[in-house]
Write a structure and sequence with these properties.
β1 and β2 form a beta hairpin. About 20% of the residues are buried. The protein is mainly alpha-helical and about 140 residues long. α2 packs across α5 and α2 packs across α8. It has eight helices and two strands; from the N terminus they run αββααααααα. The protein is globular and about 40 Å long. The longest helix has 14 residues.
Length: about 140
């Protein structure tokens, strides 16, 4: 029920992914690896922002004791955060975030218009603990 986690995908893209788990680590020359779906290179930061936001925001509902992040996610936590930090949101993402905030009263801090706000969130120990269970 949180529009900040919704992903619009064309039927062709959705069919290509199927039920394969999503992999966001940056690799340029592959779209599918080891049974995982690797989205187009230019879409990875946008998807990473959504994934990180949802992991953080809904960590209690995810029951991280029962469903902890994968070993690869924990190992790649700094890389995923760097990917988001070095690929800022575009105007469309920020406009959507503003609209969600105006309508529902909450927003994704990774889509804030202020880079300092985005980086402060990424650098916070609370974020790392809730999203990845690492300190």
């Amino acid at each position: 029920r949180d529009p900040n986690g919704w992903v619009v995908a064309a039927q062709k893209a959705n069919s290509a992914r199927g039920n394969s788990p999503l992999t966001l680590w940056p690799r340029i020359n592959q779209s599918i690896a080891l049974g995982h779906y690797r989205p187009p290179f230019e879409e990875r930061a946008r998807l990473a922002r959504k994934w990180l936001y949802m992991r953080y925001t809904y960590s209690d509902e995810l029951d991280l004791e029962t469903h902890p992040p994968s070993k690869a996610q924990v190992v790649k936590a700094a890389l995923i955060a760097a990917w988001v930090r070095n690929n800022p949101p575009d105007e469309t993402e920020m406009d959507m975030n503003d609209a969600v905030h105006a309508e529902l009263g909450w927003s994704n801090p990774l889509l804030d218009r202020d880079e300092a706000v985005r980086n402060q969130f990424l650098d916070s120990s609370e974020f790392r603990t809730r999203a990845f269970r690492v300190r």
